[in-house]
Specification:
There is one protein chain. The chain is α/β, with parallel strands linked by helices. Helix 3 runs parallel beside helix 8 and helix 13 crosses helix 14. It is 33% helix and 20% strand. The chain folds into three domains: 197 residues, 3-Layer(bba) Sandwich (FAD/NAD(P)-binding domain), CATH 3.50.50.60; 198 residues, 2-Layer Sandwich (D-Amino Acid Oxidase, Chain A, domain 2), CATH 3.30.9.10; 110 residues, Helicase, Ruva Protein, domain 3, CATH 1.10.8. Helix 3 links the parallel strand 2 and strand 3. The radius of gyration is 25 Å and the shape is globular. Strands 4, 5, 6, 7, 8, 13, 14, 15, 16, 17 and 18 form an eleven-stranded mixed sheet that branches. Strands 1, 2, 3, 9, 10, 11, 12, 19 and 20 form a nine-stranded mixed sheet that branches.
């Protein structure tokens, strides 16, 4: 850690609450709606980063760091956030994309976590209605080899009531039991003779990367300085007391020093790397757990809602989630996951290996019948195949059918004793080092806002102010967090039909869809597909560069759109065309276009290679560290 204290250091340190009056931006109740964004250009952000001094510097541009930046900005603090790669480039773009309470946590007795998550789910549905959708889930009751057997169905019914009472009812619908015919109609490719019924309950889903980006942009709209591709290479210290007072940041064009009264480490699985900048011998605090998801063509499964499917020979389950709605009740894709295993490899690019793929596909093939079901006479004729002839087999789903994969790392707080990653708590933890760095670790996507609230409360304590006292003595916004009422950028419930051009854009951009529609009106070619067969338009790539700080081809194909995760082959085939479109707005020449395409092709090749590689020393199937009856 560097000491950059000099004779004029007092001029570099903030006039923050630790040494003087804090700058307070007036903010009233009407400010809870963020409908217009400030410029979100990287060059402008870097200029402000170089020139400014801050109350808090947030390291990490995942959903936790973005949430901390938003909470602090709303309270009136001067905030900077730096992300070493792209926003949501780590765990926050590689989750199950669910906004949920977690039924299994209730089974484990963690009522407080479920209560908190269900309340946060409702706040997200209210504050980001353009990004978060109610998602029905079905747990089939099967006669054999199922997640739930007829014998334990009564017990699950009690758990469902508890889930509703804990807060699940707030979504507007309670759980209910399903008949065998109704359960089968939701996944008509199941073994019909094994279906005895089911349970239906409700949670929510969201595009995790877009949610993270929108939170970061909302923080910027509230005055935060937010920049990607800014790597923290060292921490700086106050030469008088040894407390950390900033960071040395590599912006790609050189190093700058960013000064802040408090530094927040919100880097997820990389938290220990930042901690080692303070103390080289810092003991590990994070235990990364890998979760893998696999995408297949929806026509192979034909589920119209999310389904909890069993894993053969393991008391465990996976989610089968439809994705890419066409607007007519059908979908483009379905994804299956997640595994839960220790990860000892690279934190930067975890991969789905052959064991992971076999584990997920075996579970899927265990659930999907090898022959299409005939009409049951109940009006629920199978739509799973082109024929209902029982003599026509349905081939198993193989790696050749997989259209995309992603692997993410959960930043679980390490326990004092070893054990399964699935047993580690999903609660978050906020700690303060002896040099004043605030670290937030653990948690889950759904509870990001509460994690941020607790973190900024600790920041205020480090600044010498109690949240309660500030609420009384200064202003409402410098006291307790008010983000539970802050609607994210573009928030609207008026989204229309997702199957139309306008509906597609409003489901992704909310009120900002008007800007994309205006772009298309000026240049109709921007309404053409970005990638053939996918709903994304060329205007979305241009908007990503102009308004969302996308700077690479990977940014656009993997995170601003999700084409890479759902149809990698189509994205790779269109990579050069997309790069040429971006070049017009990023100033790339022919050599840079080729570099961008080659970098994306290399990413695709690494994923393909990993999927046929058996990990050395893999003694058990991927995902077998958990034996919950229901994993949600």
């Amino acid at each position: 850690m560097k000491c950059l204290f000099a004779s004029n250091a007092n001029q570099h340190r903030l006039r923050g609450v630790t040494s003087g009056p804090m700058t307070v931006r007036p903010s009233g109740r009407r400010a809870t709606d963020t409908t217009r964004s400030r410029p979100f250009r990287r060059d402008e952000m870097l200029q402000r980063l170089r020139a400014g001094t801050f109350d808090v510097l947030v390291i990490g541009g995942g959903i936790t760091g973005a949430g901390v930046a938003l909470d602090a900005a709303v309270r009136g603090l001067r905030v900077a956030l730096v992300e070493r790669d792209d926003f949501a480039s780590g765990t926050s773009s590689r989750s199950s994309k669910l906004v949920h309470g977690g039924l299994r946590y209730l089974q484990n007795g963690d009522v407080r976590l479920v209560y908190e998550a269900l309340h946060e789910r409702q706040r997200l549905l209210r504050n980001a209605p353009h990004l978060v959708d109610v998602l029905p889930f079905m747990i089939p009751v099967l006669t054999r080899d199922g997640v739930i057997s007829k014998k334990v169905a009564k017990t699950l019914g009690s758990a469902m009531w508890m889930y509703d009472l804990t807060g699940g009812w707030r979504i507007g619908k309670r759980h209910r039991k399903l008949s065998a015919d109704t359960a089968f109609s939701h996944l008509p490719t199941m073994h019909r003779d094994r279906v005895a019924g089911g349970f239906l309950y409700y949670d929510a889903s969201a595009d995790d990367a877009r949610l993270t980006l929108t939170i970061a942009r909302t923080a910027a709209a509230r005055g935060a300085v937010v920049a990607n591709r800014c790597r923290v290479v060292d921490l700086t210290e106050d030469g008088r007391d040894g407390r950390v007072d900033g960071a040395v940041v590599d912006t790609g064009d050189g190093e700058i020093v960013v000064r802040a009264s408090v530094v927040v480490n919100a880097t997820g699985v990389w938290a220990d790397e930042v901690r080692s900048m303070e103390h080289a011998d810092a003991s590990p605090s994070i235990r990364p757990a890998k979760g893998v998801h696999v995408t297949v063509p929806w026509e192979r499964v034909r589920n119209d809602i999310a389904v909890v499917i069993p894993v053969p020979k393991h008391k465990r389950s996976l989610f089968l989630v439809p994705a890419g709605p066409r607007g007519d009740g059908t979908f483009r894709h379905a994804y299956v996951g997640t595994t839960d295993t220790d990860h000892a490899g690279s934190l930067d690019e975890p991969q789905c290996d052959a064991a992971d793929l076999e584990y997920v596909l075996s579970a899927l093939n265990h659930t999907i019948a090898d022959r299409p079901a005939a009409d049951t006479g109940t009006g629920h004729a199978s739509t799973a195949g082109t024929s209902t002839d029982q003599t026509v087999p349905r081939p198993p789903i193989t790696p050749d059918d997989v259209t995309g994969v992603w692997a993410g790392l959960r930043p679980l707080v390490a326990a004092s004793s070893s054990g399964r990653t699935a047993d580690l708590s999903r609660n978050h933890q906020v700690t303060v080092s002896d040099r004043g760095v605030v670290t937030v670790a653990g948690g889950k996507l759904t509870t990001y806002r509460k994690m941020a609230e607790d973190t900024v409360d600790e920041v205020l304590r480090q600044l010498g102010r109690s949240p309660r006292r500030l609420r009384r003595l200064l202003t409402r916004h410098l006291g307790r967090s008010t983000t539970r009422r802050v609607r994210l950028l573009g928030a609207t419930s008026d989204r229309g039909d997702v199957g139309t051009r306008e509906g597609h854009l409003r489901h992704r951009y909310g009120t900002e869809a008007d800007e994309l529609l205006a772009m298309i009106a000026v240049d109709p070619t921007l309404g053409d597909p970005l990638v053939p067969g996918q709903p994304h338009m060329r205007a979305e790539a241009v908007f990503a560069v102009q308004h969302e700080m996308a700077t690479t081809l990977v940014d656009v194909l993997e995170r601003r759109t999700r084409v890479h995760h759902f149809d990698r082959a189509a994205a790779e085939a269109a990579a050069h065309d997309v790069a040429e479109l971006l070049a017009d707005h990023l100033g790339w020449d022919a050599d840079e276009i080729q570099r961008q395409v080659s970098a994306y092709q290399a990413l695709c090749e690494r994923e393909r290679t990993a999927a046929v590689t058996v990990p050395i020393g893999d003694a058990q199937p991927a995902g077998s560290t958990s034996d919950e009856v229901v994993t949600t």
